[in-house]
Design goal:
Blueprint: E1 6-11, E2 14-19, H1 30-45, E3 51-55, E4 60-62, H2 67-70, H3 75-80, E5 97-101, E6 104-106, H4 108-115, E7 118-122, E8 126-128, H5 142-150, H6 152-161, E9 165-166, H7 167-172, E10 178-180, H8 185-198, H9 201-213, H10 219-232, H11 237-247
Parallel strand pairs: 2-3, 3-5, 4-6, 5-7, 6-8, 7-10
Antiparallel strand pairs: 1-2, 8-9
The structure holds acetoacetyl-coenzyme A.
Acetoacetyl-coenzyme A binds next to helix 2, strand 6 and helix 4.
Length: 257
């Protein structure tokens, strides 16, 4: 499939998706979201891809949902089409997805980054949920995911005032895993993804599933889920290989089995 709003590349075992609507600071419209879902799902099914990086431009990861495209929406249409419902297709990707964020990640852009498995931020990154200034509120998970990332007080302040936070504040409050220089962002994220892609794919996917489970269930249920998955790993060839390689002081050769 050819894409008009995103650029799709592979770098070794890493799938790289770059949001590409520079004229609108990568504002997210239906076509872009449809293309993104398709590209992510294609990488997810591709046996040669072990990890995915999602990025934008130097100026903007994404400046939110496309305001011009939705300004005239009517309630009944948004309800009938279940507007925004397919945005979280990202969360159904089973391989890890890293958001590499430079510049603005606002509104739906911040929400999209939070749907990824972790966020690496450039020192230029700015995060925020400015929807309140438009007479609406976050609609793609912002009030829920931001609260889980940064806690109620900061999430409430950001959603109610629309103020942006810089990369330092985002790291300090747990929204991003680390900050890198803007010029190194994509290379750094791809290198990180490449490292993940070298590990056993089923083990990586189970690890992702287990961490994500912590969002959905109680601690005791989550720990039980983790323990069962951990036990199941002893049925894999890669567990045997990983531990044997450690004992034999060599690099493991995982077979994804
Ligand atoms: N939708 C549509 N177009 C957008 C856009 C958006 N979210 N953000 C920026 N653009 C467009 C601008 O209209 C402008 O286009 P024109 O040149 O045709 O006028 C172009 O991108 C460049 O933007 P600016 O001139 O505004 O650039 P700037 O550097 O002066 O400001 C900015 C950058 C602070 C990010 C500013 O563009 C801005 O505030 N954007 C809107 C941010 C926002 O409110 N996002 C939330 C959207 S609602 C949402 O996301 C709901 C949800 O939860 C899903």
């Amino acid at each position: 499939m050819s894409y008009e709003n995103i650029i799709v590349e592979t770098r070794g075992k890493v799938g790289l998706v770059t949001l590409n609507r520079p004229e609108a600071l990568n504002a997210l419209n239906k076509d872009l979201i449809d293309e993104l879902s398709e590209a992510l799902s294609t990488f997810d099914k591709d046996e040669d891809i072990g990890c995915i990086v999602l990025t934008g431009s130097e100026k903007a990861f994404a400046a939110g949902a496309d305001i011009k495209a939705m300004a005239d929406n009517e309630y009944v249409d948004t309800y009938l089409t279940d507007f925004l419902a397919n945005w979280d297709d990202v969360t159904r990707v089973r391989k890890p997805v890293i958001a590499a964020v430079a510049g603005f990640a606002l509104g739906g852009g911040c929400e999209l980054a939070m749907m990824c498995d972790f966020i690496i931020a450039a020192d230029s990154a700015r995060f925020g949920q400015p929807e309140i200034k438009l007479g609406v509120m976050p609609g793609a998970g912002g009030t829920q995911r931001l609260t889980r990332f940064v806690g109620k007080s900061k999430a409430m302040e950001l959603c109610l005032t629309g103020r942006m936070m810089d990369a330092e504040e985002a790291e300090r409050s747990g929204l991003v895993s680390r900050i890198v220089k803007a010029e190194d962002l994509v290379e750094d994220a791809v290198a990180t993804a490449g490292k993940i892609a070298e590990f056993s794919m089923p083990i990586v996917m189970m690890t992702k599933e287990s961490v994500n489970r912590s969002y959905e269930v109680s601690l005791s249920e989550g720990v039980r889920f983790e323990r069962r998955l951990f036990q199941s790993m002893f049925a894999t060839t890669d567990q045997k290989e990983g531990m044997k390689a450690f004992i034999e002081k060599r690099k493991p050769a995982f077979k994804n089995r």
